Amino acid sequence: MSPRAAPSPRAEPSAVRNVLQVLMRAFSTRFAVAGLLAAVSVAGGPALAAESAPPEVLVVPRASAPIRVDGVLDDPGWASALLRELPNEFRPGENVPSPVRTECRVTYDDRFLYVAFRAYDPEPVRIRAHLSDRDALFRDDFVGIILDTFGDDRRAFEFLVNPLGVQADGVLNDVGNGEDFSWDAIWDSAGRITPEGYEVEIAIPFTSLRFPESAGERTWGFQPTRSYPRTMRHQISLTPIDRNRNCFLCQSARLAGFERIAPGRNVELDPTLTAHRTDERPVFPSGPMERGKVDMDPGLSARWGITPGLSLNAALNPDFSQVEADAQQLAVNTRFALFYPEKRPLFLEGADYFETPLQTVYTRTLADPSWGVKLSGKQGRHALGVIVGHDTETNLVFPANQGSGSGTLGSGSDAAIARYRVDVGKSSALGVLVTHREGEAYHNRVAGADGLLRLNDTEKIVFQALGSSTAYPDALVDATNRDPENQRKGVQLPSGEFGGSLLSASYQHESRRWNGWTSYNDVGRGFRADLGFIPRVDTRQAEIGYQKLWWGKPGAAINDLRLGGEVTRTEDHGGRLTDQSALLLFYAQGPYQSSLDGEAGRQKEFYDGSTFDKWTTHFFFNIRPTGDFTCSLGAQLGDQVDYESPAGSPRLGRVTHLEPGLTYDRRHLRLQLDHTFEALDIAGGRLYRANLVQLRLAYHLGLRAFVRAILQYQAVRRDPALYPPTGEGESPIPPRSRGLLSQLLFSYKVNPQTLLFVGYSEGRIGETGLPLTQTDRTVFLKLGYAWVM
Could you give the dihedral angle defined by the CA atoms of residues 480, 485, 487 and 491, in that order, rounded to the nearest 10 degrees? Predict the structure, then answer.
């Protein structure tokens, strides 16, 4: 397919207005939206759900005797505990009898909440259990609890344990972005496999929880759960889960009791000491490696539970060393900045309090803070999050419609983030957000409001409105605007202070038989969120989608099948069409925990003065035939623009993007191999071929210690004849480039803060005629200790 001339900004305004007017009329009331989506449904939507029955209230007694957490349920303290069986399978079956028997016991004393499980299994030899790092147990059997300590059906803690005692903990946010297992707490667990199945004991200190103050009895949301993976992964719960209700926590039981508990002084001090030495080769490739000096970096983090629901965190010289290497991403032929998840403890505590519908808070923009203070928590209906700190580096992303650039301020900056949310009604919420970042001749300020309004059990509206004010130093503006790559992407920074706005609104219907959604997003040309991740601006986007759902009966080969479609149209603020797509959507779950998720359809894309007609197909397939082996394949096939082509003459090619992966587990060993292959073929031949291989090999000596090796290798081959020469007659693109990152780590963790890391890492690069040559190497040691009072 060849590009055609780009339309003028006035070429298609009537069609654009028609699309936007339809969606905006649909937003005017929820009834209009429901009617619009029902019109395209072959079966129609279900009637509105009836008023739900009140949740069951369970009274938890105090422990009658001490309990020792060792995985053996023989302590006398369990005799008086609350005992319940988990009778319900909610996935893949919908509230059918559980295929296995599970007992859950709950009790408490002045300091701990105790939970125990006896998980019976008809074939104990098939129990899936591996030693692993925390939060990596999801291939295994596991049990756990979901605990809504505020009882407001909005946010809950998750504590999960596999049969060997491996832990996973996270936060489930029913008004935000779902589950987040980056949060870590200090708690105790033990597990063991028995002739009848397995047993697990859990002890959660009240100092690790947040809950409202009360002089008497407390009532918490409570959902014990079990994951039973065999040919299918059976998810088992205490209470039924109605698929016609778009909330999970509102369907939990209630746990009443906990008189006279308190988190104590609730003070935690976490001193750290990081020592590292980095050797570098300043003259590459022929210069020698120069030995670096040993840097000793002491640091201190502290947490104070001001109230049971509100915590103050502070850090001096915080240790932000990345012990876990980022999963490398293939940065070839890309337009926009890449996203990497946050992994630093200071920012993970209470991170969900800062969530908004769009990623307007992204703490990895704070590259190297010298200090930071954070206040977060909830009192009654009011949730609050505040972060203040100083960053010694100020890295910036410069977004535009056609791509994004990057730069650095060259000096430090101060940063502040304030987020407030109030619960409204039974399950809705409204919030406000203010962010501020300021450095030498630079500032970025953002303020606005957002909300989630649940209209009933199946329908909700989500919105966000923001405004920003920004100013960059003149020297940075001049250097950025003169960059040819930035000019091609349309990245041009205004001089002086400038502003912009963002508006986002969506309607969503989620029920047993069909899902539907429609949304409108408007991001102004001058909008900036330098403490967030908004890599594209100058867009007006309208979208509408529909999906029909079929659920298989117990024992069926396909237990979840979804078919649908989605139409999206994006313009810039001059009225020019920049993106358009009409896609068919497909999703299915099958035997051996297999799933296939895909989309295919037609797209239009405007880039560098031309509009391209494209066909595209994406899919991802995953299967787990045994408890030890998992394999997957992701793919993108179809048309792709060459974003590195000469300015003013972009080219369309055929892309082949494949991502095979496999994981092999034994009791102590985990091997994970992921490969990314991408090739782009244009009329003259193969423009480039890129391979990225990532190998992770970990051997676990026990629950607390492991040794891990990581290798990340990237190789790119290009055809110089397909790249126009420079003024000197040479192609600006090297025919071959390679890179290798390797890391070896020994880890010993008593808990997430009391730990020892010892490691070695190095980087190597190579090009045509140059073998892989070492550029740097680092030896590091990290000690951390959690002192809880």
Answer: -60
